[in-house]
Design a protein that fits this description.
alpha+beta; Creatine Amidinohydrolase; 4-stranded antiparallel β-sheet
């Protein structure tokens, strides 16, 4: 299903996007050396409830996961890149942490992810990887607008990631959002320009470039959810929800 929001829906989409951005930045500030991933999940739950919003994750049970996700935020550390299920792990200096969050408020969903390094140690390779996903995300957003096609976004994202030297997996990518978290159209992280669905004002898209340092192969953790690099290399993930408008694309989840 591809859902097109009316102009009167956009303020609610902006409101949800602002909430997601606020929660992610709060969790980033609290993710220090010695923080437990389960505490991040607990703090996220409290902020969602206090805001009168609903988690898109806690009861989420898709075909690619094993049972309900049963947590409020994805916490992916180092070689984990997607769907990281919070568990009893204490963050250490130099850990690369990706936080991914989707919530619904007022009947509209927003979805966003950030990657950052915990503590004072800043490994150069990890910094470069995070930067590549952020630059790819910016390129994808710049390619979006009324009349553009999904392939234009995918090509822009893939060009940045390829030029940075990272393998690209198309197993998971961006997607439409609206009244539910995962909708059509699918937005691969590489593609051919001029192909695919033509973008229309009112369409919400979650764009999410993610990479693994030296592989495109994923393996599923024993928890049935967390996706890791097959080689154990580090990973990074950046995501924003955007709204296609008459004038271009508006980022709804920018801090």
């Amino acid at each position: 299903m591809i859902e097109i929001l009316s102009p009167t829906d956009l303020p609610r989409a902006k409101d949800t996007g602002s909430l997601v951005a606020d929660i992610l930045q709060t969790m980033k500030s609290r993710s220090t050396v010695g923080t437990n991933l389960l505490d991040i999940d607990r703090w996220t739950k409290a902020m969602i409830i206090e805001a009168g919003a609903e988690s898109c994750y806690v009861d989420y049970e898709p075909s690619f996961g094993r049972g309900p996700f049963a947590h409020y935020i994805c916490t992916s550390v180092n070689d984990a890149v997607l769907h990281g299920r919070p568990h009893d792990y204490t963050l250490a200096d130099g850990d690369l942490l990706s936080l991914d969050l989707a919530v619904s408020r007022g009947g509209v969903v927003a979805d966003s992810a950030i990657s950052f390094i915990v503590g004072d140690s800043k490994p150069a390779e990890s910094v470069a990887m995070i930067s590549a996903t952020e630059r790819a995300l910016a390129a994808g957003i710049a390619a979006a607008g009324p009349g553009a096609r999904i392939g234009d976004i995918s090509h822009a994202i893939g060009t940045v990631l390829s030029e940075a030297g990272y393998p690209i997996s198309t197993e998971f990518g961006g997607h439409g959002v609206g009244s539910t978290m995962h909708q059509d159209p699918h937005v691969p992280n590489t593609g051919r320009p001029g192909r695919g669905y033509k973008l229309r004002p009112g369409l919400l898209l979650a764009l999410e470039p993610w990479v693994m340092a030296d592989t495109a192969e994923l393996v599923t953790d024993a928890d049935g959810w967390t996706l890791r690099s097959a080689t154990g290399c580090r990973t990074a993930h950046s995501e924003h929800t955007i709204a296609i408008t008459d004038d271009g694309a508006e980022v709804l989840t920018r801090a």
